[in-house]
Each structure stands twice: as C-alpha cells, then as structure tokens.
Amino acid sequence: MSRLYTAPDGQPRCGWAASAPDFLRYHDEEWGYPVGDDIRLFEKVCLESFQSGLSWRTILDKRENFRAAFAGFDFNKMAKFGAADVERLLQNKGIIRHRGKIEAVINNAARAQELVAEAGSLAAFFWSFEPRPENLPEPQTAATSPDSAALSKALKKRGWKFVGPTTAFAFMQAMGLINDHANGCICRKKAAEARKAFTVPRLEASGR
C-alpha cells in the first residue's frame, strides 16, 4: 500500500487510512497524538493485545462493545474480574472471544495497578520509553524498534501478557510516543504540534 493517499477533502493522508470507512476519522482524530490518560493508555494496550493475529478494522468495529464488556477499561475495576467474568466474556458475541486474550487483559489490569504503585502512573511508565529523535525509524517502515522491544521486555518482566515488541510498537504509534504519520500526511505536522504542547508525564520512582 502506498504511504499516502488523497482523502475526499483533497488532502494527503497515510495510505492505511483508506483501508476502511472508519479509518480516516480514527487516523485524523486519534492515531499518533500524544496521550497521557491512564485509562486510554490501558485500553489501547488491551485492544492491541486483542488485535494480535487479526486486523485493526476488526477491533475498531468492536471497540464500543469491548468498552462495555470491560468496564470502560478501568483497570481498577477489571482487576476484580474473576472466573465467572471470563465465562461471561466468552459468551459475548460483540468482542473477540479468545480465552487466552481475555485472561491476559484481566491479568494485565492487576499488573497495571502494581505499575501505578511503582511508577506513579501508567503514563509516566510508558512515556519513559519514548524514543529519542535519533532512534526513530523512517515513518511507516518498521513494525518493531529497540524501544518497543525494551517496553515489551519491561512489561513482561512485571507479569504482563500479550505485549510483544510488535504490539508495543503499534501502541507507541497510536498513543503518540512516536510520530509515525507518513511524510507528506497532513496529520504529521498536527501530531508534531500536539507533541510540543504535551507535557510528558514523569516517573515518581525509577521504573526502568
């Protein structure tokens, strides 16, 4: 797929934004803009975990169903889910009914609580893995990076599941830890401006 396409408004966008009807809005309004909210960050980790082996279109189409099923991805609520909740979720046709992934994100909710206690917030921990500019790959040429591998390793060390380097990289792209909008995409400059206005959360304790 070309790295650029001309959207209906005549402006260039990342080529993948043309892949599905809902992608353009997601691309323009969400993808690549910096996020510092713990719930949104946790939601994205969970959705990327569910996407493993599937298309993002499948997950985006079901996102509201996921939110309803998983208590709005409030990890403090999800950490209380038990075996009965797993069975309930396995019967929910509106989400991806994969036992391993369901159990993984419930596990990760408890790990998220631990991480907040360790680092002060999920945002502070995740943003501590923001790549240095000189370490950034050419936009839309990579599926992993040394920084996503480091984030994946750090999460796995803390007991998180379904958070491999590719999942971590997709998370970093979407949450604005890197600006991976294609060169020439009108949102690349917008994402860069949003990053300049964004205050990077800082660790309260050494989390790395």
Automatic annotation (TrEMBL):
Q: Which GO terms describe its molecular function?
A: DNA-3-methyladenine glycosylase activity; metal ion binding
- Residues reported to bind Zn(2+): C14, H27, H181, C185
Q: Which Gene3D superfamilies match?
A: Hypothetical protein, domain 2
Q: Which InterPro entries match?
A: Adenine_glyco (IPR005019), DNA-3mA_glycosylase (IPR052891), DNA_glycosylase (IPR011257)
Q: Which UniProt keywords apply?
A: Metal-binding, Zinc
BP GO annotations: base-excision repair
Cite the Pfam families for this sequence: Adenine_glyco
Full protein name: 3-methyladenine DNA glycosylase
